[in-house]
Amino acid sequence: MDTKAEIRTLQHFIGGEWVDAEDGGLFDVVNPLDDSLYARAAKGTGNDVRRAVAAAKSAFPEYRETLPKDRERWLLRVAEIMEERKAELFDCLIDEIGSPIQKAMFEYEKGLTMVRAAAGMCRKVRGETYPSDAPGKFSMSIREPRGVVAVITPFNVPLIKTARLVANALAVGNTVVHLPSEMAPHLTVLFAEIVAEAGFPAGAYNVVTGIGHEIGDDLTGHKDVDFVTFTGSSVVGQHIAEICARNKTPNTLELGGKSPTVILADADLDKAVPMAARSIFMFAGQACIGSSRFYVERPLYDEFVKRFAMVASKVGMGDLRDPETVIAPIISERQRKRVRDHIADAVAKGATVVTGGEWIGNRCQPTLLTDVTEEMTVCKTETFGPVTSIYPIDSYEEGLEKANDTEYGLSSAIFTKDINRAFHFARNIGAGMCHINGATIHDEAHVPFGGNGESGVGREGTDADLEAMTELKWVTVQL
């Protein structure tokens, strides 16, 4: 990577070497705060992808035989180097994707934990023994790495997703080809530098930067890719699922969400309102697990709207390096138009903007909508911005029914003092995750993270990835 120029030029990392795109192509990476040029990155081609897959495939036979203690040491060294380069990672998260400093700190700490947790996976790649009906036969299973893992990560939490998915794949003996979002290539390049410095063998981890819709199919559809893990939109996820189905390539897909929060009449608003704000305004709502639907029992509805609006109106929108700043810029002009269109459509059809709805540069004010009806786009479709709708409900049963009235099924939350209703909700909500008296935005390294329906297939996390990224083989010995 060229570090001399003021505007950095990013290269691919293939087979342990930094290389340009095959045709020398570059694309611009902009700072979403003001759309100024942040970096230029190698614009990958199909041949660049194929080079990376070939490097990963070539490295796999030797890498799969590495000892657990070696992979464990390399991963822990990655964590150490991340600590040494903490300031650089912070700057990248702030300037490349517009993270406020508090979100950058949150993501850095989570990413660090993901890598350390992955180190613990190295010694858990194991099978078991089985009784056999055949006399004198010893029967067992062994668990083996799948081979080449394709990792495709989003812009919104690039360090968390990179740390988790790449580290977990490497921990269990796979090699990796990584295609990051074209809006966050520098973060991934920094991670590749760290992985290389930590001592991982050449070809174990490969990065190709480029435009996802141009080269994504070259990666997910490659005959030598043995597993695909993707985080992104439901539309792209469906496309990848179809490609993987044709090739019979196993995969995990973590996709969009329209996550509901139900607030019952016995809820503690002193706790619920701050959690509500966290659930939708962190990183300006650019989170698949953000809560864009609140269902509030009528005895608390007016007070909740009043308090939520007060908090929303005071959410910080200053310098991204100011700890008081919460609201991030919306990542791209295409996404800004989506947010504007959702708000305008709702207002045109009769919704009330309780607070927000205006823009300061590339940042949308925290926006609360009431009187939202089903014909409004914002009612059922993911906005991916700091916009949420608040609906009154007359009972817990109505709240559960409306919370489940969606094609998505990622995260969910309920606020109540009634333990029976809380657990009834947890058991009956059609989401992959449920938080009782907590925000919909929550993640940890070892939990089964993921959703149902349009929100994806499979789960992420140390245990889930260990199972997904390896396969069992049955072995018998006739004694």
Which descriptors apply to this entry?
479 residues; alpha/beta; Aldehyde Dehydrogenase, Chain A, domain 1; Aldehyde Dehydrogenase, Chain A, domain 2; seven-stranded mixed β-sheet; 15 helices; 40% helix; globular; disordered N terminus
Description of the molecule:
By secondary structure, the protein is α/β, with parallel strands linked by helices. It folds into two domains: 8-255 and 453-478, 3-Layer(aba) Sandwich (Aldehyde Dehydrogenase, Chain A, domain 1); 259-436, Aldehyde Dehydrogenase, Chain A, domain 2, CATH 3.40.309.10. Helix content is 40%, strand content 22%. The chain contains 15 helices and 23 strands. It has helices spanning 46-63, 68-84, 86-97, 101-119, 158-171, 185-198, 212-220, 234-247, 269-281, 298-313, 333-348, 377-380, 396-403, 419-428, 462-468; strands at 8-10, 12-14, 17-19, 26-31, 36-42, 129-130, 137-145, 148-153, 175-180, 205-207, 227-231, 251-254, 259-263, 291-297, 352-355, 359-360, 363-364, 367-370, 387-393, 413-415, 435-436, 456-457, 470-478. The chain has a seven-stranded mixed beta sheet with strand order 15-18-19-14-13-20-21, with helices on both faces. It starts with 7 loop residues before the first strand and ends with a strand. This is Aldehyde dehydrogenase family protein. It comes from Oricola thermophila. Keywords: NAD, Oxidoreductase. Belongs to the aldehyde dehydrogenase family.
